[in-house]
Design goal:
Two copies of one chain form a homodimer. By secondary structure, chain A is α/β, with parallel strands linked by helices. Chain A has eight helices and ten strands. The first copy, chain A, has a six-stranded mixed β-sheet, with helices on both faces. At the A-B interface, helix 6 and helix 7 of A face helix 6 and helix 7 of B.
Amino acid sequence: MRIAVVAPSCTLKPEAAERVRAIVAQRADCELLFHPQCFLSHGHFAGPDEARLAALREVMADPSIDAVWFARGGYGSNRIAGAALADLPDPARAKIYMGYSDAGFLLAGLHKTGLDVAWGPMPQDVLRTGGEAAVERALDWFARRDPAALEPALQQPAMAFNLTVLSNLLGTTLEPDFADVDLLIEDVSEQLYRIDRTMFHVAASPNVRRVARIRLGRVSDIIANDPEFALDEAAIVQEWCDRSGIAYGGRADIGHDAANRVVPFGARSC
Amino acid sequence: MRIAVVAPSCTLKPEAAERVRAIVAQRADCELLFHPQCFLSHGHFAGPDEARLAALREVMADPSIDAVWFARGGYGSNRIAGAALADLPDPARAKIYMGYSDAGFLLAGLHKTGLDVAWGPMPQDVLRTGGEAAVERALDWFARRDPAALEPALQQPAMAFNLTVLSNLLGTTLEPDFADVDLLIEDVSEQLYRIDRTMFHVAASPNVRRVARIRLGRVSDIIANDPEFALDEAAIVQEWCDRSGIAYGGRADIGHDAANRVVPFGARSC
């Protein structure tokens, strides 16, 4: 299993790459290639749009690569997602793509285009407390589709998104078909009023209303609301599901943390 | 001109009401009624949804009221906007509604329903530096449609929205028809990466792509981006307009500040 790492959003920290390399060196089931683009820096991004797109297109087209692993989130993959999906070379269809957070823009578009994608931990997660376990979990799933890596209550087909990313891809060319999907959402570093506003937006979508159910992962690092918001995150999500005729399926084991599990999109990747 | 003030979002500060009352007392052309609901508090909101909705419905239905003025922004008008628009009593159609920021959810829905609305300063703006001028400007427009209050380069039909509010109302029942509209946007207290992400979302909308042009008001109190973002707010908006085939019309004289001008929606209100 040859895994290429590219950074369509923000720059990967070199110390994260080193620690992930050390983990992979202890395993016999995978080989990791960090594309030099991971370490570029251009303002907010891991290099200009052109460089991030070229690196992604390069590994997508490489028939020797079995998997593309997005280095980290942040922001920026939406700026290149449309171009990344154009005129796909055949080798792009023979691999699996994994990431989460801002990489959700790419996961959505790649899945919509018929490629195999999964929500799951990324290399930069190694810097989190307990992050080695997250990286091992991702590699276990890459290398041998270890069911222990999966979110434990998945119903197929499933998808997972950062709620704010999901909100921002609705109505764009990246928006996938949500019919009958077990839709897992999570968020990080938002005020609760924003979670409420974003749920208003997402739950209004006729496409989203076709999901089998919505389940809520962790909403972490909530920014203080002054005054305190009237509802917590679970009550917010449940209320907008109720208002919109969407089944609320309770909590899910995903989030911006080391415990984040793998959610393969669709039915084909399990 | 009898103007009723209600607070569909957050609680109005009593000192703002006092200062606006003092301004109105010096004028002979209008009378102001602060609904007691303005001063309710329920978590983030100026009272529970039911209380905010009831106050709004009450003043909408009152034939003695000529104008409804939203007290302030914050967050929450979207939670009651749908219900506010249902089964409208006739007197609701014989008045003008004004506000901005979070009140944009209501402006959009009311305009879509055929009512007269305008973007413009609100009572709580009196607490800003120079805020008395903003309140006088709003009253000049309410009482005598003073053209000096208007954004100076408007082409009809026009609309104005907080960019983040606009993004969150796309795809909801509140979304108005943007065909041939001079669309003014502004934002406050966001990081530039969020402005970029929101423009990606907004500019992807086929409805938004039908505007005559987009003009950019002030983007104030920008939250620091670490590292610095690669583009400023004007370059961001221009780029997404260019990518989406939308004409970019330059800057506009609106924003979360005392200089904020009035933008009547549609052609009928000028």
